[in-house]
Amino acid sequence: MACRISVISRHISSPPLEHLDDLGIRVAPEVRSALSSGVGVVALESTIVSHGMPYPQNFHTAQEVESIVRANGAVPATIAILDGVPCIAWIGLSLAELERLAKLGTMVSKTARRDIPYVIARRGNGATTVSATMFFASKAGIKVFVTGGIGGVHRQGESTMDVSSDLTELGKTPVAVVCAGVKSILDIPRTLEYLETQGVTVVSYSTDEFPAFFTPNSGCKAPCRADSVEECADIIEASTKFGLSSGILIGVPIPAEHAAAAKNVESAIQSALHEAESRGIAGNSVTPFLLKRVNELTGGDSLAANIQLVKNNALVGAKIATALTTRLS
Ligand code: PSU
Ligand code: MN
């Protein structure tokens, strides 16, 4: 056992923090000390705040998610670009900054990997998507990242080629992303195929099926299953140890009591998809449009379910981050 622990500590250590200073990445003192003392850190994205939910639910949910992470022994690190400066856990620096972003909503640039240089060069404000958040989390040596849902292959993606950069990021960035799976606004079987092509380890938590965000069932079997946070940590440890340098996707099904409330979501998704097509919505506006319309069409039910599943993911993700660090001691 002692031998095992020493092997792990060599492989799960964080990069030196001076490296972040050299890059001009602002890191909250709490995250800085957690990273250097081996306390668990959970990265959180900011597009879910700006584009994923309306104000004030986005502001309240972001704070609740942070509290859940803390209550489970880890330090939350919300990532965004503010005035051209990449910030890790900027909430720790100022709650007012979070509220500013929550209120600005879609006025803030949705920032995926490709947008990072532009937002920084223009000294702009950027809400980071899963791809950009993974990128910065990995620079800081953060191993676990919690969100609601990731982007994927869109329906008709075979002709539009609308495939989220979240999937290619997962292929090349060693961060474990804890989410509630992929929404059926997307083509779930093709998304799983693409993740396989990218070499992403896809794990379902306590279920055989890959979850479909609002429902635990997608009809697609997940390639791997883990039944505890320790098993998730084992998988992250093995990937890290062998330097695979690709990501891990952990799909946590929405808790049953909240899935029931989201039952009418599928028909709303169908209507929203038709609307997006007839209105010619394309590119990176598609996902925010669909999220907003589905929420309107379900009279807020989808938002309520979304909030619950994000909180549940925060609980599981924080426990995974904590399980990883106890192996270091
Ligand atoms: N799915 C959700 N909520 C979200 C997003 C996706 O249920 O907020 C956001 C995430 O930031 C994700 C991004 O990384 O949308 C994907 O956008 P696109 O499909 O344009 O790649
Ligand atoms: Mn896209």
From TrEMBL:
GO CC terms, sorted: cytoplasm
An annotated Gene Ontology molecular function: hydrolase activity, acting on glycosyl bonds
InterPro entries named in the record: Indigdn_synthA-like, PsuG
Gene3D superfamilies: Indigoidine synthase domain
Record keywords, A-Z: Glycosidase, Hydrolase, Lyase, Manganese, Metal-binding
Keyword Lyase part of the UniProt annotation: yes
Name of one Pfam family that matches: Indigoidine_A
HAMAP family: PsiMP_glycosidase
Descriptive protein name: Pseudouridine-5'-phosphate glycosidase
Lineage of producing organism: Eukaryota, Viridiplantae, Streptophyta, Embryophyta, Tracheophyta
